[in-house]
């Protein structure tokens, strides 16, 4: 079994929805949390969030993973300025331009039920570098969890990925806004 990656486009929106499924947080959020903020991502307007995700996919802002031609994983990445909620969650102690169009952000991973623990998210983390470069980014950053030794991170918080998978993909830590969160970057 081999994992292949594909930048998203209008033709693969159904594959994105297959990865998200019809139940659970991914199906409900539609990967709009860092774009909309806490209250809007938890509203009852799932159809509205799905249409926002469709627009994101049409713009080419995302990456899909396939395992033997079956869609199994999703990663959201786009120019950082497209994610206004990041300013509230990862910005403590940072003074750079929040709207720098040359910095792209990796905000979310979803691995299809039944396909977890097969390296899907790690492959997607590696693939973010090429997608950001092809999109014109100068830098790509992410906001993974970094659990303390011997501590687990609740499942619902790991949608941002783990620090280890980004370090393995060549990212470096540039900021630590909290005990459990890091900001990592890959300069292109």
From TrEMBL:
Keyword Transferase: yes
Domain of life: Bacteria
Keyword Heme included in the entry's annotation: no
Domain N-acetyltransferase as annotated: residue spans: 3-188
GO MF term set: acyltransferase activity, transferring groups other than amino-acyl groups
Transmembrane segments: none
PROSITE patterns: GNAT
UniProt KW keywords: Transferase
Signal peptide: none
Entry-linked InterPro entries: Acyl_CoA_acyltransferase, GNAT_dom
Protein name in UniProt: Acetyltransferase (GNAT) family protein
């Amino acid at each position: 079994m081999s994992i292949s990656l594909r930048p998203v486009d209008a033709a693969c929106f159904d594959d994105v929805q297959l990865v998200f499924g019809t139940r659970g947080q991914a199906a409900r959020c539609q990967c709009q949390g860092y774009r909309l903020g806490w209250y809007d991502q938890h509203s009852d307007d799932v159809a509205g969030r799905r249409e926002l995700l469709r627009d994101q996919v049409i713009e080419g802002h995302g990456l899909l993973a396939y395992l033997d031609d079956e869609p199994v994983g999703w990663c959201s990445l786009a120019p950082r300025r497209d994610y206004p909620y990041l300013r509230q969650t990862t910005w403590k102690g940072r003074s750079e331009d929040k709207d720098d169009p040359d910095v792209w952000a990796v905000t979310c991973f979803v691995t299809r039920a039944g396909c977890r623990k097969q390296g899907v998210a790690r492959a997607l983390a590696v693939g973010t570098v090429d997608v950001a470069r092809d999109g014109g980014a100068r830098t790509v950053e992410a906001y993974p969890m970094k659990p303390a030794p011997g501590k687990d991170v609740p499942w619902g918080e790991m949608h941002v990925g783990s620090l280890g998978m980004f370090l393995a993909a060549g990212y470096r830590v540039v900021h630590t806004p909290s005990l459990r969160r890091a900001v990592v970057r890959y300069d292109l």
